[in-house]
Specification:
Blueprint lengths: L3 E8 L9 E8 L4 E5 L6 H9 L6 E6 L2 E2 L10 E4 L11 H11 L4 H14 L4 H4 L8 H13 L5 E5 L7 H18 L2 E6 L2 H7 L2 E6 L2 E6 L1 H6 L4 H6 L6 E6 L4 E4 L2 E4 L2 H9 L4 E6 L5 E3 L16 E12 L3 E8 L16 E7 L9 E6 L5 E3 L10
Parallel strand pairs: 3-8, 3-9, 6-7, 7-8
Antiparallel strand pairs: 1-2, 1-4, 4-5, 9-10, 11-14, 12-13, 14-20, 15-19, 16-17, 16-19, 17-18
């Protein structure tokens, strides 16, 4: 079994400084693909390096397979790491690079060769490539060699530190699907670090979101997207990012760009309890539905029911083929730009059908379902749920 547990794990680089990792509690199941994601300085790489034994702990402990490895040497932790920069020996062939760790462990040559060729087969590295030096390989091939070096060790846990960051965009997409499929076939517990939330959402069984050394939420990609616990997670997960706007409260909900968006009784009760006069509201780009033609005055469209329309000026259209991203400056009832304190105006991004986008400069309106509006505390960032 190869469960991994962080139990109150902390790392502080300087006395009195904010911890790089602050009392991290995280359970990773046997065979799970766990992604640690967050911006620079969030603590994700430090957490991985502590698991690898490359960083000391300043508090708590780390367990692998039920064994406390907090002070165990890296070579004795039964882990294999894939680095961002590949870390291949330039003077050795692909086969020698992949089998080097086994050679250091005095594994017989016949067994080493068997494991290297099996790993090469899994990674679609043909026999001709095994005799080449790293300089004769493409970036994607070098990354697969680095992964092969980890595979031949048959570890309990794979550790991957932003392994795709040196690849071009097309190769990143191809390689991330290969890594996910490889992990599924091998069934080895994997901890993967990235700053790219698209990688996190498409690869991980669960995703742990970190910020300033703290774990904010750990859940499946769908759960993170549908039910973020706070404003940071909501804004970080999803591409394009969620639209976040500060809007004043009314008796029914919030006033946004001249329209009143109803909020649930639970959200209104929580806001009243904290004596709030405004909230941060979040709307994902795909939940802004273009109304054609735009309704005059920004009021509700006929037959819209509980829908509300937000009106604004189209600033820019990003054509993506099947989709288009519309950048819109919201306006109030009278057509003036909304301010942060008036009717909750600002700039939003909407995802629409690519072939029906209006031209920049036009006035456009969007419907939004109240159920698709997220509400956050303006000071703490916590989500207010109804």
């Amino acid at each position: 079994m190869a469960e991994v547990r962080y139990v109150g794990t902390s790392r502080v680089y300087a006395k009195g400084a904010r911890p790089a990792v602050d009392a991290l509690n995280l359970d990773i199941k046997d065979g799970e693909f766990m992604v640690l994601v967050g911006p620079s300085g969030s603590g994700k790489t430090t957490a991985l390096r502590m698991l690898a034994g490359l960083e000391p702990l300043d508090g708590g402990r780390i367990e692998i397979g039920g064994r406390d490895v907090s002070y165990v040497q890296p070579k004795d932790r039964d882990i294999a790491m894939v680095f961002q920069n590949y870390a291949l020996y330039p003077s050795k062939t692909v086969a020698e690079n992949m089998g080097f760790a086994l050679k250091m462990q005095h594994v017989p040559k016949a067994e080493r060769d068997k494991r290297v060729r099996e790993a090469a087969r899994i990674l679609d590295l043909d026999d001709a490539l095994l005799e080449r030096k790293p300089k004769a390989l493409s970036g994607g091939q070098r990354q697969r060699v680095a992964m092969g070096r980890a595979i031949v060790r048959e570890p309990s846990v794979f550790l991957m530190d932003e392994p795709l960051s040196n690849l071009d965009a097309k190769l990143r997409v191809q390689t991330r699907s290969q890594i996910a499929e490889l992990q599924r076939r091998l069934g080895i517990t994997t901890v993967y670090v990235t700053h790219d939330q698209v990688e996190a959402m498409t690869m991980g069984h669960r995703v742990a979101v970190l910020s300033n050394g703290k774990l904010l939420q750990c859940a499946s990609p769908r759960e993170l997207y549908d039910n973020p616990v706070n404003q940071f997670v909501a804004g970080f997960i999803g591409s394009p990012a969620m639209n976040l706007l500060t809007a004043p409260l009314t008796d029914e909900g919030v006033r946004l760009a001249g329209a009143v968006i109803p909020l649930s009784a639970g959200v209104r009760t929580a806001a009243a309890r904290d004596k709030l006069t405004e909230l941060v509201v979040g709307i994902r780009p795909e939940h802004l539905h273009l109304v054609t033609p735009a309704a005059p005055g920004g009021g509700p469209a006929a037959g819209a029911g509980d829908d509300r329309e937000l009106t604004g000026e189209l600033l820019l259209v990003e054509e993506l083929g099947a989709d288009a991203l519309m950048h819109v400056r919201l306006t109030s009832d009278g057509g003036a730009e909304g301010g942060s304190g008036g009717s909750g105006g600002g700039t939003v991004v909407a995802r629409t059908e690519g072939r029906t986008s209006p031209a920049p400069g036009q006035r456009v309106s969007f419907r939004v379902q109240p159920a698709n509006v997220f509400a956050f505390h303006p000071e703490t960032g916590a989500r207010l749920a109804g």
